[in-house]
Structure formats: C-alpha cells, structure tokens
Amino acid sequence: xxQKRSLSPNPIRSSTNIYRSSQILDRSSRFIALYSPALTAxxxxxLPEVSSATHRIAAWRSPSSQSTLGSSQRAYVTSHDDDGExxxxxxxxxxxxxxxxxxxxxxxxxxxxxxxGPVRFDHIKNCAREAISKYISTTQQQQFxxxxxxxxxxxxxxxxxxxxxxxRDQSISVLRGLxxxxxxxxxxxxxxxxxxxxxxxxxxxxxxxFSALENLERARDATIxxxxxxxxKAEAKMEAPSDDSKPAVIENRQEKPSVDGQGxxxxxxxxxxxxxNPSESTIQTLDPPIGDANEPTGDPKPDIK
Length: 305
Fold this sequence. Notes:
Helices cover 37% and strands 19% of the residues.
C-alpha cells in the first residue's frame, strides 16, 4: 500500500458550511465524506475529525480561466489527491464532474485490516455522492425559499401598485370634472354647456404584468400633471378682466346753431359712461364754427390813406 504524506494543519474558516455523509462500515473499514463548495481540499484534509484516518482521499473542481473555442460551455479544472489510495482521487474527481459542482470533497478511510478489493471504490463514490447531494438539496431549498420570498414581495408590490393606480384613476376623474367647470365659466357664450365626459373603462390591473403597471403609473402621473396645468390656466383666465367688464360708452351726436348767429351749425359729440352721472359727460365739438364772432363780417372797407 502506498505511503501517504503528512499534512500540515491549516486554519479552517468556521463560517463555511461542510456537508458530511453518513459513514459506511465494511469489514472493519470505515468511510466518511466531507464536501465544501468554498474550502480547499487541504483545509478539509486538515480537519481534526479526519486527522486519524488512514487515507484522506481528495478531489477538487473549479472554473477554468481559459475559454473553450467553439463551445459555449464553461470549462473547469479538476484535480485529485490519492493520499495512498491508488485511483481513489480519480474516482472522487469523476463524482464532482458527474454532479457538475464546484468545490472540494474528501473521503476519509480508516483501514480495518482486511483488504476490500474493488468494492472500496464504490464506498468512496457513494460517500462522496451523499455529501454532495446534501449540499445540492440544501441549496435548492434555499433557492426555493428565496424565490418564494421574492414572489411574496412582488405580490405585495403589485397589490400596492394596483391600489395606487385605482386612486390615480379617481383623481383624474375628479380633476377632469373640475376642469370642465372652469372651462364652462370661461366659455364665450352663456349657452355653453359643460361637456360630460363619458365613463372611462378601467382596465383589469390584476391581469397586467408588473412592468406594464409601472408604465401606467408614470402615465397617470403625467396625465394628472397636465390636467392641473390646464386648471391653472383656466383659473388665471377667470381672474383676468374681460371685455364685458369694461364700462359701456354711450355717444350722442347733435347739431346746434353756431354762436355767430349766421345760420351755421356745429356738430357736438356727447360721450359718457353708461354707469356714470350724465352731468359728468364729456362734450366734444367735432365741426368747428365757421368764422370768428369778433371778426367783422360783410365786404371789407377800402383802406383810405
């Protein structure tokens, strides 16, 4: 039997999970496997629980830094350590490749004094497969639990978003009614009527994907912002003075005799506010009188020198 080499103890990361198989007993020989996706084979071999084993057979598998040409599959580097059990390490390496896992596995064998023959390789494979299967099962349960938690969180977010969209729809309906009232007051004709908006068919939000709900929330916010802007413009228009609020002007024109008494007439324009006192009216003379009252009339006398 090949001699095994001694291993120097290495510090073990206690926070790393180690998956162990149940032990196999066969004619006083005992087998047990330890697997870790994070620890190295040397760290597993240095554990106190296997320090007294006759053989600490190991294998490890990790991703390769080199890519395989013409293939999309990931390449791996696999190696092993027989530790005195010829072909034992290669047997372990095949288990890692078959189960397609990364990490290190160690099978400790305590020799019982009776040679087992080829069956010992079955024990090595079975121990290693059991330890690795525990890791796969635990990982799948953790992933399932995480996925379930994620689904529950997504459902909570989804229900919250659906409630928000329903509130947005109600707000839009109220704001549209308010905008219609503002536009009615600003209508040029008093006969204008408020346009009644037809009821909007609310979609069944529960049947829409989450991404569509997020897009609808942004669209509803944009719609509310636009309606608020229109309401602000309508209110500003209501506060601005209109043409109807300007005072009405009444204009009268009349003909009256000229002051020279010669039969000429002048046109007088009387302007006053319809709401003011008529005595405060403004009188404007549009046609000036012909001649001057102080100027002599008739043929001019010759200048006698």
